[in-house]
Amino acid sequence: MPDYHYIQHEDIRRFAYEAFKAVGCTEEVADLTSYALWLTGVRGVDSHAIRLLPHYVAGVEQGRINPDPNFQIESRAPATAVFDADHTFGHAATMRAMRHAISLAEAIGVGMVVVKNSSHNGAMGTYGLEAAKNSMIGMAMTNASSSVRSPNSKTSFFGTNPTCIAAPMLNEDPFCFDATPVPFSVNKVKTYAEDDNPLPDLTYAADKEGHPTTDASLAAQMLPIGDYKGFGFLMMADVMSSLLSGMPSGDNVASMYKTPLSEHRRLAHFCMAVNIASFRDVEEFKRDLQHTADKIRQQPRMNDDVPVMVPGDPEKATTEHRKANGIPVKDIDFDRLSELAGNLGIGILQAV
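^ thats the sequence. predicted structure below, dont judge the formating
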């Protein structure tokens, strides 16, 4: 098992912000992207958090990511917009797009924005939660490079294409379901391979010939949950992001790691904000969602030691724990980040 450094959670955001500024990012891009990495880290989605910072910095230095974008918004109808990210960080672009969707929803009840010419944008929960903080229902989706084996095929076509829905609750942080229709993300499989750990079982991944495997180092393709049902969710996200924005689709999406860092990825994302007040009283909605969640949690347990949870409960518990005790960063990642700090001339991460 790997060893960890535990980093004070606010220092994660400071470190990412300083790194982005050091490579020429604008104030807005550095602020929004570092916020996304921080939020992902405190919620426990380590595969998409600070460990990716060296890759992102290399993307700026080698030309894939534009640190000083000229954002463009085109509206063809009152409730919709197309947001051109100008090849900057997907985190900053998607947050701006979601905020625009929120402004549309404030005016007319719903806002839908597709993002084009973007890059990797991390975990979708970041953007769904932004809408929920504004007393709205938020949805976010993205395409990704081909990595999930199609049912009865030897090869992959769609990426993991995650989807999120978030909504405000009465007495706690928002409900947030953020997932891909595969058991693990590609980045999480990479962490298993780095740690020399086997995957849980044969339903997670397949080798390059399409055969299921538990050897993370041989995992070349993910497997969709529920076979064709999970595959259908992948295609849904592709339709709403790739096809709606006119960006590369399916197996034409550029790879995060295999495509040269000098080339843009031209990723696409989808954001939607639904103004609850356009349908009913917001506080009553929050009360009813709270009641639903509480009833689920109170259901009789099969195992008394394991709680019945609603989506997002593990992330809420992780957030509370990590804000108090620090965010774990594996030694190998801490060393990479320390080297990055030296190269960029910024302060290293400080352990708790």
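The first helix runs from residue 9 to 22.
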